[in-house]
Amino acid sequence: METILSVKNERVKQWKKLQTRKGREKAKRYLIEGFHLVEEAIHYDAPIVELLISEEHEDLAFKYPLDKQVMISKEIANQLSETPTTQGVFAVISLEKNQATPTFTKPFLCLDTVQDPGNLGTMIRTADAAGFGGVVLGSGSVDMYNSKVLRSMQGSHFHLPIFEGDLTEWFETFKQQNVPIYGTELNEAAVSYTSIPKTDAFAIVMGNEGNGMQADLLAKTTKNLYIPITGKAESLNVAVAAGILMFTLKK
Amino acid sequence: METILSVKNERVKQWKKLQTRKGREKAKRYLIEGFHLVEEAIHYDAPIVELLISEEHEDLAFKYPLDKQVMISKEIANQLSETPTTQGVFAVISLEKNQATPTFTKPFLCLDTVQDPGNLGTMIRTADAAGFGGVVLGSGSVDMYNSKVLRSMQGSHFHLPIFEGDLTEWFETFKQQNVPIYGTELNEAAVSYTSIPKTDAFAIVMGNEGNGMQADLLAKTTKNLYIPITGKAESLNVAVAAGILMFTLKK
């Protein structure tokens, strides 16, 4: 097994560049961290380039495919980690854009300019749990390979198709497929989500935490839903609202 | 209006101590930050001791009660802030434990050793939005006056009764009041939440993110609920699960 102990090693510099969106897009690779995510990557045959294991976790090496392992020093692990206490296990993964053909027999979650990494990752994880057919990440959203998004997704991007693209074009496709598009902007035309019958196929759109959905997209939705608030809170967290809608609307 | 410009001022030192649980409990005060929270505190008659306004926001001073205002320097605001970019507006509030008598005609959310501040705050905000009667924060949970909890609650603690106490004693009370207690631990006896009829009064218990509910509490629940997962995600985020349960179970 290869061993790299100096933080000044050129490889370490390359790995650290994966902590930024620019670095990830240039290298066409991203970095995941922690036992759970690495195990999910292996289990779901993600395109793993390298597995980095801190020397203090040498005993774990047997758990992982040997041919791709690189032993690293604790110091390197601390520099690569984006958590307060690292588990010392990382994987470098090829960043391959999803080219799958979407199937429209299951619901879709569309994310319009969502900016908080934790919210974005949690919504993708929830769509996975709810048995959705896929997620469409509209332009202007936070990068899905951001370390906080990866932590919140808990590996869901390994088993749920995530498409990045222009939501206007996706809305056209949904319409051609007779898939209703539900917006989530509180306005006069909005109807309570409880009035919508459960169905197999629909698209639900969650907007930006502060500004909601983009106006031109909102105009193209089939219906606009709201969740009635009976207490004194002004609104729900976007990931909580998405969870309520996804689990209630799907058949 | 009083003005304090030096970060070395004794008052600044006292305010900074409110950033820790120990400091808050000793001073019996806590600190909130930002326009929205401060406005909620004023609107709901929270026991405000002082309002701190950064000198660069002098123009905002007219919006707030004048008698409690202290003008502070930008440097002090930056030291008191626990956000990347501060809005420069703070309030020091008396920490008065909730002594209200609970009414059992509405549902209750019980939190058992929940550790993540964002999850805790989001669940309290959701209980508020769902029109719950109150929240019981069991011992061993994160401090509700932690700045991250306060940010996620978005002021819900100003309008929803939050009780801190021993959940075992609360469970006894719920039983005396014929209020069903729903646990949320995935085990053999668990039933799908969709099989529970909507009711006005019940208690739902959310457990620790990693370890779930404490075993002795779990044994005392009326029923144990789970949310069926149809995709490949292993679980839901606890705040998302709480949101789905609260909005689905209440009448």
From TrEMBL, chains A, B:
One GO MF term on file is: RNA binding
Keyword annotations for this protein, in alphabetical order, are:
Methyltransferase, Transferase
Query: Do you know which CDD domains this protein is assigned to?
Result: SpoU-like_rRNA-MTase
Is the keyword Methyltransferase in the record? yes
On whether Ribosomal protein is a keyword of this UniProt record, the answer is no
The record places domain RNA 2-O ribose methyltransferase substrate binding at 31-99
- Coiled-coil regions in this chain? none
Give the domain of life.
Bacteria
Q: Name one GO cellular component term.
A: cytoplasm
Gene Ontology process terms (BP):
methylation; RNA processing
Question: Which family would the database say this protein is a member of?
Answer: Belongs to the class IV-like SAM-binding methyltransferase superfamily. RNA methyltransferase TrmH family.
Q: What is this protein called?
A: RNA methylase
Species for this entry: Carnobacterium divergens DSM 20623
